[in-house]
Amino acid sequence: MLQIFLIVGARPNFMKMAPLYFALAKTRSLRPTIVHTGQHYDTQLSGIFFDELALPRPDFHLDVGSGSHGVQTAQMLERIEPIIVSEKPDRVVIYGDTNSTLAGALAAAKLGVPIAHVEAGLRSYVRDMPEEVNRIVADRLSTYLFAPTTTAVGNLAHEGIVAGVTLTGDIMYDALLQHAPIAAERSRIIHELGLTPGGYVLATVHRAANTDDPARLADIIDALQLLHEPVILPMHPRTRAALMGTDIEVEPPVRIIEPVGYLDMLALEQAARIVLTDSGGVQKEAYLLGVPCVTLRDETEWTETLEGGWNVLAGSDTERILAAARRPRPGGAPAPVFGNGHAAELMVEALERSE
Question: Among 4, 16, 62, 329, which is least packed by CB within 10 angstroms?
Fold first, then answer.
């Protein structure tokens, strides 16, 4: 039986891991082992996701915590390496584009363990974006490249990477199909917040390009306040810290709430009139749920979401954000570009063929 290390550490990683973990656990030939770096370590950004996704507690928890990119990645490397040496996994699976992704890739590559990258081939083509560096390095070091879309496959081919590439579809679609009905049944957040379905805006802001630039952050907050309709803003710890160092005031109709779990987030997304976000995952979930989106960035890795006007790039410009948020709802339904909800099964098949 092959031991498969699943290295995670940040909120987006957990949703991507869950479908693959359970698909691996069903096999007789592959044994999943969860390694949590601790990149996201508080309950609302970590523990609640394990509970809601019915995942077991990590086999290894490295307790790295926050820090600069260099410090955080170095500590992860230092703590992942001895576990790989002692456990001798046959494969290491990494997810997306976080610092945990980069550290897992570097540690495994230096020790000669084959790497599988979930969400391979995504590109923003903005090299000063930390996530872009992480995903490029991860793809270069990986043996198995699980691409979510034909665009991702094309990006890899353009860079000369064709061996080991599998078009799987998007594993977050697997997770959404499994959990959206559960969210609709169990989540009470719409009622608890006194919201009317279709009568509010959901916003998330967390990327360093927005939070670490006071001018960009102020313009985004201005836009949210000028919408003159209820805006729900789950506040990421990074954004809260950034606001504390400025004179930016967040006032009604913007309503700050604490970060929410996966099920509550799905419920908020499903019932929103429109979503404003700088998160790649939230852009994609909005698209899959048929909810219009405004991306608070000047580019997106998920270019497919722009099709049919379901997603619009607005950057941090107040007027562009307002215009995009007030646009008419697109007609029809989003195109089915993210696979069929069986990405995890295709990944397992690829890993089983590698025995």
Answer: 329
For residues 314 and 183, state if they share a domain: yes
Which domain, by its residues, includes 227?
A: 178-325
Distance, CA of 43 to CA of 259 (rounded, Å): 10
Give the separation between CA 162 and CA 147, rounded to whole angstroms: 11
Task: Say whether both 110 and 162 belong to one domain.
Answer: yes
- Does the pLDDT value for residue 238 go beyond 90? no
Q: For residues 136 and 221, state if they share a domain.
A: no
- Model pTM? 0.94
Name residue 4's beta-bridge partners.
32, 91
Q: What percent of the chain lies above the pLDDT cut of 70?
A: 97
Residues catalogued as catalytic: 206
pLDDT at 68: 83
Helix, strand, coil shares, percent, the chain, to 5: 45, 15, 35
* Statement: residue 46 has pLDDT above 80: no
Query: From CA 239, how far away is CA 257, in angstroms rounded?
Result: 12
Gap between the terminal Cα atoms of the chain: 9
DSSP letter assigned to residue 130: H
Which CATH number does the domain housing residue 277 bear? Answer: 3.40.50.2000
* Cα distances (Å, whole numbers) of residue 215 to 240, 246, 248, 315: 15, 10, 10, 12
Examine the pLDDT at 47 and tell me if it is beyond 80. no
- Verify that 241 and 282 share a domain, yes or no: yes
Q: Are residues 157 and 196 in the same domain?
A: no
Averaged pLDDT, 173-185? 95
